[in-house]
Amino acid sequence: MIGDAQDDIYARDEIFSTAHLQGSFAPSVVIIECRALIRECLALCLQKKLGLPVLTYPDVQAWERDPTGASACVIILSGVDKQMDSEQAELVQELSHWEKEVPVIVFSDNESRSQIASSLRSGAKGYIPSDTPLEVVAGAIKLVLVGGVFVPPNLVMETRQESAPERASGEMKLDFTARENDVVRALLKGKSNKVIAYELSMSESSVKVHIRNVMRKLQVRNRTEAVIKIADIVRGEDGLAPYCA
Predict the structure, then answer these.
(1) Neighbour tally for 211: CB within 10 Å
(2) Are β-strands 104-108 and 126-129 bridged in parallel, bridged antiparallel, or unpaired?
(3) Which residue has the higher pLDDT, 164 or 3?
(4) 33 contacts 79 by C-beta, under 8 angstroms
(5) Cα separations (Å) of 136 from 43, 113, 139?
(6) Span 136-150, pLDDT tens digits
(7) Per residue in 1-56, pLDDT tens?
(8) Beta strands 54-57 and 28-32, pairing class
């Protein structure tokens, strides 16, 4: 979730500071959407909001054939409206492991928890429902560009309601320290290590240590899996599992 993050956190210089964004062409947002009207409308809106070049393609093959497509700094895979099947999951996974390690965001009409979780597990760094306000969409893309993960609010809300009986039994309690709990809050909002370090007044290396400890306690392999699992065990007004100091 975007939370209270401000636009100045995601400055243009920071977004384009990573090595994998360097190339012969200016970094561009790539939109893959088979419906011409929708992809052109998305391009016009996002180019204005992000201030970045936007390239649009009807399918992955068209993008691969275009040399300028190699300038992608983020790939938006749009039109994944039905329940994600194995072929779509493989496509997200393939794009997520492209040699330049460009983050993938899924844009879809389907807001089901299973669809969102499937996309994130396949490697997507964000999932944006099509009814999301434009300002939030732009913020979500900026968040992903600086290393964050965008999770729709409904994923947390649904899991909170579904897991209420299990939480009442005390089975979902986690042994987070106070500082780890602060980091967990930031992870649920999809914030990058740099933003977390700034907001919590600690070094990025300390943030990485806390995240590794959280992943170890959750028994997950990466921060995306951590976000999914944390969403499964959220509780209380702040949407967090309790911790033991």
Answers:
(1) 20
(2) parallel
(3) 164
(4) yes
(5) 16, 19, 5
(6) 899 889 888 888 888
(7) 333 333 444 444 444 444 444 444 578 999 999 999 999 999 999 999 998 999 99
(8) parallel
What tokens were used for 218?
A: 């959750």
**Considering only CA atoms, which of 130, 151, 144, 146 is closest in space to residue 45?**
130
Query: 0.90 exceeded by the pTM?
Result: no
d(CA 85, CA 74): 23
Q: Which residues on neighbouring strands pair with residue 89, listed in sequence order? A: none
Task: Order the strands of the 54-57 sheet from edge to edge.
Answer: 54-57, 28-32, 72-78, 104-108, 126-129
